[in-house]
Amino acid sequence: MMADTGDLHGSCLCGGIRYRAALPVFHASHCYCTMCQKQHGAGAGSYANVASAGLVIEQGAELITEYASSDDGRRDFCRVCGSTLFWRSTQSPDRIAVTLGTLEPEYTGPVKRELFVETKPAWLPRA
After folding, report:
1. Nearest by Cα to 40 from 8, 93, 83
2. Which residues, 6+ apart, have CB-to-CB distance to 84 below 8 Å?
3. Where's the CENP-V/GFA domain (predicted)?
4. Of 108, 101, 112, whose CA–CA distance to 23 is shortest?
5. pLDDT band at 6 (very low <50, low <70, confident <90, very high)
6. pTM
7. Three-state DSSP class for 42?
8. Which of 32, 116, 46 is nearest to 84 (CA)?
């Protein structure tokens, strides 16, 4: 389980972007919406939801590109390697979701939420 204090650390595939996000994690989730599937090229997007005020881009802020995927959804990725980094809602500016796959070391906390299970791909294992 992740401690309630300290930081998560992450980076993109090419290493051009490095960030840290202050704990605690509000919740972690697997999102099966079709937009997450398309962006991640996978069955789900996996995220740790944290306070946006605790996110610090330590390196490569100029490499981050934002895509407005819906009226209130914003997705940030590395413009060099394409790594998906963050998701946020303009309706909840105090929170940001960091992608679990970019964390170093790997995330060890629980993932208790599954979102948009109605669009979970049939080819994924069922519980």
Report:
1. 83
2. 39, 40, 45, 75, 76, 77, 99, 101, 102
3. 8-114
4. 108
5. confident
6. 0.90
7. coil
8. 46
Domain boundaries, the chain: 7-119
Reported as a single tens digit per residue, the pLDDT across 17-74 is 999 999 999 999 999 999 999 999 999 999 999 999 999 999 999 999 999 999 999 9
Please report where in the chains the tokens 């704990």 appear, as a residue: 23
The contacts of residue 78 (CB under 8 Å, 6+ apart) are: 12, 13, 14, 16, 17, 60, 63, 64, 65, 85
Structure tokens at 118: 């109605």
Hey, what's the torsion of the CAs at 33, 27, 95, 37, to 10 degrees?
-20
Contact (Cβ atoms closer than 8 angstroms) between residue 95 and residue 52: yes
Closest to 120 measured CA to CA, from 29, 31, 27: 31
46 token code pair: 């996996």
User: Looking at the domain covering 7-119, what would its CATH class be?
Assistant: mainly beta
At 103-121, the pLDDT tens digits run: 999 999 999 999 999 999 9
